[in-house]
Amino acid sequence: IAISSMFIAVHSPAFKASVSDIVEEKAYSRASGLIQLAEASRYVVSPFIAGFLLTRFSLPLVLVLDLATFLIGAMTVILIKNVTIQHYQKGEKESFWADFIDAFRYIVRNRILFHLLYLTTIVTFITGILQVLFVPLVLSLTDAATLGTIQSISASGMLIGSIFIGMMSRSDSQGKVLPLSLGVAGLFFILIGTGTNHFLFAMAAFCFFLTLPFVNTSLEVLFRRNIVNKMQGRIWSLISLISQIGMLLALSITGLLADQLFNPLLTDDGLLAETVGSIIGTGVARGSGLMVILSGFFLVLCSFFIAKRGEYMNFKTDLPSITPNGRQLKSI
Hints:
Layout: H1 2-22, H2 28-56, H3 59-85, H4 96-109, H5 111-139, H6 144-168, H7 174-194, H8 198-225, H9 232-265, H10 277-280, H11 286-309
């Protein structure tokens, strides 16, 4: 798993950088929607396919079929390779640290990229909180069998949202979509935390994951529009590195905060039982619900901040023709 993760870390920024070369700028948002559709399908479509195959074939054969899908992916890359690589001029070979520093300076000196990066890290962090608390919250409301159904319903929201973006979305409107979708996502996040009924919880989770692709697409399109092609690979690598720190932090501290701080506050005799508890209820996991509610409020505040500052309404900055250390970028 560790080795696989290492190669995924190499693959992800290269894949994202390649999209900017293959897809026309006006189709960035639709491409992002279709990519997220592929990502979401593994949570909805793949389990059904896996279940079907396991009932009719042996496990070794299913694993062989799984490996075959990687060969299909490799063949796809070979087919499109000439479309992208033939456009590049081979430049000077730089050291790893020179490229890393170039990417870091590029982000720091581009105000929009810098704000987009910390906003992406925040969204990743808050999504990580839900990832940790989702199962405990559902199991405090219902049984394990219903948990699987709720997870499928939630994932289908992301699938539907991605389909809509892939068919209808426009790249030139993402600057306005970002604060709106972020605010709506925050509201549904709050509803997830307040849910004391598994049906309402499922609906709130579905709506949140329906909205999440719009947030992701807006961020991705705005990133693409503000990075010159020559820097795409380096910048996406750094974006992945920094934004995933948010996920790592969420996975590290959420469980500890829930068990040691928030859940004790909302037990039947907890400090907040008669105040906050009178609104969202008390019980084993209501403190976890409070964590989700606070995270949702923070997303809403971020959306107001973005809308007020208008940082992302200036959809595209004048892209620099040189890297931060003064080297001229070669045309593509």
